Amino acid sequence: MVKFSFFKTAEKEKFLVLDIGTEAVKDLVFKKEGGKIVVLEESSEYFDEFSLWDSRNFKEDVIKKAILKTLQNLTLKDLPLILSLPANVFKSRISFQSFSRKNQKDVIVEKEERLIQEDVIKEARKRIRDIFYLETGILSKDLEFLELKILETKIDGYEVPGLKGYGGQTLEFRILANFILKSHLETFNKIISSLNLKVFKIVHPSQALTGLFQTPNAIFFDIGGEVTQFFIVKNGKLEVIDNFKVGGQDFSQEFSERLGLDQVRARKLKKDYSQGLLSEEVRQRIKEILSSAAQNWLKELKLKVTAKKILFPFDIFLFGGGSLIPEIQEVLEQSFSESHQIRYLYPKDLKGIKVSLKILTSPKDVPILLLCYL
């Protein structure tokens, strides 16, 4: 197993959050005060190249350069690090497992509870490895699980806080799994170690979603640079996590190919368009260019929805940098808006967080702020 250098204790007032995305690096410093999360500093930097992740051996020097630039913009140093890795390599899934007891009348004691939990965790790991192999061809031995956590336990259909002290026959478990290729983890370990950073924990934003919002049934879309992640909450519980490989960078690529722009100018044009800063004539031209990318995004979503037999009795929330592209909301409204509310998720919608920095006001800032809760 790859070993990061970890802080031994969580007894620190301030933390550094480092979110390595598919298109950029973002970091911020926060402290916990009076039951709230107070953001003190932030910084971000785009990668120099579009095709950073085209191979398994992605470009360490480009990633390290971007991280260094963001860290240099912060005044607070030597803090415990909360680390999140790119969505195209760091995966999160929900697995449902069941277990049948032979002696259902016997009360479960501590030893039996431990053995059952170990068994269902083992089965969840195997099932996720098998599914991932069928989807990608990647062998199970190449995966590293960073978290396998039981989120919910039921006995004969009734939710319980734990198994100990209960009887019953049919046990059901909802399990969260976070995993990554071992080779990718080794690369990030090398980068983080070379920067003399010590990791407090490695987290995925999905872990924060269910505790933050009152909406019992919702689908959240985190539209990043190269990947769109989606999280389905049913009855207030996280039940589906998945992703597809289309994001905001695909829209920038349309500008590059159709208008002959380099990546910096293409990204700026996309930003100006999303913020409504262009003339109506230019906006119409841009809208025509982006329509095919938006339809491709929708096609990939529908493929996932069909494959997983997902129905849409949900409100729809959009966040992440790519969510600001108007065509994303338009194609969702055309396909799913008859009985659903579609809206953006803003930092001000997050509970228990205080952001005095005026620049952290956009849906694109939500992913890194979610990491502060973990």
Write structural notes for this entry.
The chain has 374 residues and is of the alpha/beta class. Among the domains are: 88 residues, no CATH class; 128 residues, ATPase, nucleotide binding domain (Nucleotidyltransferase, domain 5), CATH 3.30.420. The strands form three sheets. A six-stranded mixed sheet has the order 9-4-1-2-3-15. The radius of gyration is 22 Å and the shape is globular. The two termini are 23 Å apart. 36% of the residues are buried.
Estimate the helix proportion, in percent. Answer: 25-40%
Q: Flag low-confidence runs.
A: none
Tell me the fraction of residues in β-strands, as a range.
25-35%
Ends: how far apart?
23 Å
Secondary-structure element order, as H and E?
A: EEEHEEHEEEHEHEEEHHHEHEEH
Return the CATH topology of the domain at 218-345: Nucleotidyltransferase, domain 5
CATH class of the domain at 218-345: Alpha Beta
- Any guess at the CATH architecture of the domain at 218-345? 2-Layer Sandwich
Shape descriptor reads globular
Mean pLDDT: 89
CATH superfamily of the domain at 218-345: ATPase, nucleotide binding domain
Radius of gyration: 22 Å
Derived structural class: alpha/beta
